[in-house]
Amino acid sequence: MAERAAFIHVFTSTCALVVLGESLQSLHWKRLSDSLFFDGAVLLRRDFAFKRDILRTVKTSGEVHCGLACLSESDCIAQTYCREPWQKLKGTCYLHRRGIKDGLAEDAFVKSDGCTYQQYIDFHTPCSSKCQNGQTCSYDHDNRRYACLCEKPYTGMYCEKSKAMAFYFTFLGARGNTGPTSTAGYKRTPLEGTVTLNKGIQIWTVPFTARYSFTVAGASGGKGYQPGGNGAIVSGIVRLFKGTVLHLLVGQKGLKGSSAAGGGGGTFVVFSNNTLFAAAGGGGGGGGQITSKVGDDGQKGTNGSVYGGVNGLGGKVCADELNYAGGGGGFRGDGKCAFNITCVSPRSCKEAGFSYFNGGVGGKGDGNGGFGGGGAAYNDFGGGGGGYSGGGVYATSFGSRSGGGGSFGNGAPLSSSGVSHSSGDGYVLFRYP
Length: 433
Ligand SMILES: *[C@@H]1O[C@H](CO)[C@@H](O)[C@H](O)[C@H]1NC(C)=O
Ligand SMILES: *[C@@H]1O[C@H](CO)[C@@H](O)[C@H](O)[C@H]1NC(C)=O
Ligand SMILES: *[C@@H]1O[C@H](CO)[C@@H](O)[C@H](O)[C@H]1NC(C)=O
Fold this sequence. Notes:
mainly beta; 5-stranded antiparallel sheet; 1 helix; binds 2-acetamido-2-deoxy-beta-D-glucopyranose; EGF; signal; EGF-like domain
């Protein structure tokens, strides 16, 4: 670098500029726009022009007036003044929004006789009392000055503005009873590079403290001869803190078997200490016969429907014939199967959906349940939906019905308001503001 690192302080309250040849200079200057004093140094480069980040171009009579023009604009960091070839006292003044970084951007200088580049380097922290939204004043190495350091979603000189942001979590293209294995689906979205997977569960850290609106949707049951039930949607507003880690299991649709279909998975949002934030129930799988019922929708309340689970447990199956259709998994209890219409002796089976705590894998059978604890179908009988409590199944030779999973919202059981329905795979949306 051509400039010598020499600078002095000049403690006068009026405009004072000390020129030390091609060197770093110091000055104490009043910024005209906001009455702040500039106390710092100037990086000076003679016979060079800087061609980047031009805020504005003005005609001035001399270098000092060009400097005043820059200091009177709060966004101006540096200036290039180029003398007019035929006039000693008139020139073009380029005001720059950015200067050169520490030791970088040297290539942005263009040798230009008659031009002078000057960059202001603040020594003071005039911004500390002005940074809004809890943002801090710190030294900005790129621009060699103190500035409000605005973290997402805040922008603006004093972090006074904010940018709307939406974080949309999907099933990432995964199908059936197990979850996604790649986050490639988040490329070019605000979630790119921020989500890791653990056995299909998405782990995400809240990026900034704010009040977010959230929507959590369970998946639909699969369509057999009859349609599957829709997933429940739980929505509301929550204040989340930066750094809080969330585990998200996004429910997947139940699959169609030979005639009936598996139950939809529930969608779960859980704090890393295993406290449930929200769960939206999946729909029951569609039955395989004209006498079967349509799958139940994900439920507004915490209980699953049709012999569904309660208090976070899995759904049961009540049948009057040999039947392996699976109940949906709940938050803490797996779904069950049964071969007894009295429903008194439910047992574990591979067709039942696993609970969130046991990984949330859907049941395996003739029409797998969706990831998120959906129960599998068996012959004409659809599987139960997963959810806060799993949906159950009622199966007789005269028809059948599969239940939807229960829902839970914002750390508390839900009243019937705030729950609606969606078809397809589950999702989670956090939106600011
Ligand atoms: C779990 O973490 C959440 C979020 O940080 C917090 O609100 C909740 O109180 C914690 N629960 C327990 C039991 O520690
Ligand atoms: C859930 O089921 C239990 C047991 O049948 C019942 O006592 C409770 O009231 C139900 N909860 C709701 C919200 O319907
Ligand atoms: C069904 O359950 C009842 C009550 O426990 C029992 O008496 C009966 O033997 C069971 N039937 C079958 C087929 O398991």
